[in-house]
Amino acid sequence: MARLSRRSFIKWASMVGALGAYGCSANLSALREKSVKARIAVVGGGFAGASVAKYLKMLGQNLDVTLIEREAVYLSCPGSNEVIADLKRLDELRRDYDILGNSQGIRIVRAEINAIDADRRAVLLTDGSAVPYDRLIVAPGIDFRWEEVDGYDEKASLSVPHAWKAGPQTLLLQRQLRAMPNGGVVLITAPANPYRCPPGPYERASLIAHFLTRYKPRSKVLILDAKTRFSKQELFLHGWKELYPGMVEWISAEREGKIDRVDAESRVVFTEFNEYRADVLNVIPPQKAGKLAQSAGLTDESGWCPVDPRTFESTIVPGVHIVGDACTAPPMPKSAFAANSQAKVCAAAVIDLLQGHEPGPPSLINHCYSFLQPDYAISITGVYEYSPIEKQLTATSTGETPMDGDRRKEAEHARNWQKVIAAEAFG
Ligand SMILES: Cc1cc2nc3c(=O)[nH]c(=O)nc-3n(C[C@H](O)[C@H](O)[C@H](O)COP(=O)(O)OP(=O)(O)OC[C@H]3O[C@@H](n4cnc5c(N)ncnc54)[C@H](O)[C@@H]3O)c2cc1C
């Protein structure tokens, strides 16, 4: 695997920041010339579902595309750590479906999906109606493995937030930080891989430290981690030393970071040898594919949906594609950038398949920014190529912000990227 040089990384990062999200190497304009008719149902209107619906319609104007989503508006997780740290308002994370519905010609159905009937090729809604399809794309995001953290479940999350889905949980954690005493402890528990947004817990710890530095400077952020390593680790550790000396402590799985039990009422976390009392407790539980993917029989023993990343078609249920966090496409991480990149590959492949063509081997991209404070950000990038023999992706080049990189410039790129990914998926 090639490592991007410092110079190439800087050039690459500024391109991504300025232009936003890249997708795949499919020849999109060539596909657009051809017209194909079919009914496509897209289930879940997050970054993955919205992007795939949009690109299907862009590439195949005669397609009848229906996007089914339970919420009236989408709240973006990228940017939600900034809301927690009082740097953004929650309504800034709001993404509407109006443009997709009115200008892109996608039929938006606001409904809770009950089940998928793959034999009858229909999506069954809780109101008793059904949406028939010729091809189905499933993008329900994640669900939590509540059973894996003793003492922590959905009810406990009403007082001890996970804040791993943007919305009321984000505001609950924000309120608790505002109310905590100066000199208190914020305790974050980070799950084992794989989970949504690998650098997310560490960006959160950083921005909370930024908040504490301003308002409660005698306080501390403690991370108990079920892992021994984490994404952009050296860059985060370096940044914490530089920006928040003595304030952020990371305890890895090797040093009893793995938690045994949570007492949500008293906000105490138990590890093998110790107990940690928190003023604000943020438990990020282990994860799996969204409930719908499980009930539709699209998941394997890992809890995620295996796919052939050439088309993102399920390797369990033919004719059904899964994109975004719910699918497993290693070594791609679970991110909004990756979801958008997968959506483009999937849309192009679905059109190829409908036309009776063999989809070509795709290339995919991921680029993830993390803020350590508003004018200090770092990023990681990866390019993934499809190997037809293994039917898997391989990271062909990767890179990270260089140690002497310009963090202020990266923060600018990160802010641009947040705007562009929103327009990419929902615009
Ligand atoms: C704190 C945090 C920070 C992050 N920061 C970044 C970042 O900086 N960059 C980045 O690239 N990624 C980031 N991410 C990751 C990113 O949010 C996810 O990877 C992305 O949201 C995945 O998109 P998705 O469409 O697969 O899932 P989701 O965004 O969860 O969308 C799934 C949709 O399906 C709908 N749905 C599910 N089941 C049903 C049903 N039965 N009926 C109807 N609708 C249903 C849901 O309502 C939801 O709208 C972050 C995540 C977190 C938690």
Automatic annotation (TrEMBL):
Q: Does the keyword DNA damage apply?
A: no
Tell me where in this chain the Flavocytochrome c sulphide dehydrogenase flavin-binding domain is found.
361-426
| All copies of domain Sulfide dehydrogenase [flavocytochrome c] flavoprotein chain central, residue ranges | 170-285
- Give the molecular function GO annotations: flavin adenine dinucleotide binding; oxidoreductase activity
UniProt-listed PROSITE patterns = PROKAR_LIPOPROTEIN, TAT
Q: InterPro entries recorded for this chain?
A: FAD/NAD-bd_sf, FAD/NAD-binding_dom, FAD/NAD-linked_Rdtase_dimer_sf, FCSD_central, FlavoCytC_S_DH_flav-bd, FlavoCytC_S_DH_flav-bd_sf, SQRD, TAT_signal
- Which SUPFAM superfamilies does this one have? FAD/NAD(P)-binding domain (SSF51905), FAD/NAD-linked reductases, dimerisation (C-terminal) domain (SSF55424)
Task: Give the record's keywords alphabetically.
Answer: FAD, Flavoprotein
Q: Where is the FAD/NAD(P)-binding domain?
A: 39-152
Entry-linked PANTHER family: FAD-DEPENDENT PYRIDINE NUCLEOTIDE-DISULPHIDE OXIDOREDUCTASE, PTHR43755
Q: What is this protein called?
A: Putative oxidoreductase
Q: Which organism is it from?
A: Methylocaldum marinum
